[in-house]
Amino acid sequence: MQVSYVINSLATGGAERMLLRQIQYSPREPTVYTLGGAKDLKPEFEEAGSSIVDVGSLEDGYLRAVCTLRDHLSEEDPDIVHSHLPNAHIVARPACMLARIEDIVSTHHNVARSPGYQFRVGTLEKVTRPIDTTEIAVSDAVRRSQKSLVGPESWEVIHNAIDVEAYHNKVAESEGVQFDSHSPVFLNVGRYVEQKGQKTLIKAMSDVVEEFPDAAAVIVGWGSLESELRELTQDVGVSDNVFVTGKVPSVPDYYSGADIFVMSSVWEGFGIVLIEAMAAGLPIVGTDTTAIPEIVTEDFAKVAPPQSPEQLAEKMISVADSDTEVLGENALRQARKHFDITRLVEQHETLYERIYYDS
Question: 150 exposed, middle or buried (CB, 10 Å; 0-12, 13-18, 19+)?
Answer without folding.
Answer: exposed
